[in-house]
Hints:
The chain has one domain (5-290): Aldolase class I (TIM Barrel). It is built from eleven helices and eight strands. The chain has helices at residues 14-21, 29-50, 65-77, 102-109, 125-145, 159-165, 168-188, 206-213, 228-238, 251-262, 268-290, and strands at 5-9, 59-62, 81-85, 113-119, 149-154, 195-198, 219-222, 244-248.
Amino acid sequence: MNKQLLILPFDHRSSFSKDLLGATGKLTNKQKKEIEKLKQIIFAGFLKTAKQYPKDKNLGILVDEQFGLKILSQAKKIGITTCLPMEKSGQPEFQIEYGNSFKQHIEKIKPDWIKVLVRYNPLNTAVNQRQITELKKVNQFCKKNKYPLLFELLVPPTDKDLKLAGSQAKYDQLLRPKRTIQAIKEIKRHISVDIWKMEWLSVKDWPKAIKTINKNAKIIILGRGENEKLVKGWLKAAAGFDQIIGFAIGRTVFFNALKKYLAKSATSQQTIDAIAKKFNSFIKFWDQNKK
């Protein structure tokens, strides 16, 4: 668990239906079936890559119960590391998926990891207090029942941040590192995190973030749906730190392949092959730079 964790995340729900199918509002049964099929294709691509590596490579999937229950069941049967999201999809403020019955859903699936996605900018004091209250419920259950917690931290800009920085790109460079470190400090006071899933930082900012967590921090990098060249640049900057043990890259791996499939310019097998090839390229790139 502590050596490496390389995840293909496809737990997207509201963004998946909107960005790939153009669906808004309540989904039809046909649309739900379509999403389930698309996620099966992603999983097939993952499996094609996973078969090339030993089990201790620790390749994993992050997929939701709503559209991926069969996938989670199959993955557990064959020994694939599974991560289950526990945030309600498409919400700017953290809410627990399935509300007060979330515990039963976790116990039904018994994933290897519980993941929470939280948008946490320290300037949003009132929102953050409500989020911490909800996160504590999940965290306490995880600690009591020995489910490790994967904490996906996003630090979006406030209007004030954008005004100060001038653009999203400048915010990422100039303000987000500082906001991220403050967010980690605040979250740590209340939540026990086993692995932090984090946005990119520069080589000069990573040591500050790692020190804020602790010298034994475990971190994986997320891809933010960006292009391959940009994400590989982030991985290269992160690979030099022992505490950064892998990545969770999803849309960069599968989105364009699924778009071609939906446009009928690629077969399901061609799509599976394309996803497998792209995921494998990130694994090889990570291995090369980690050495």
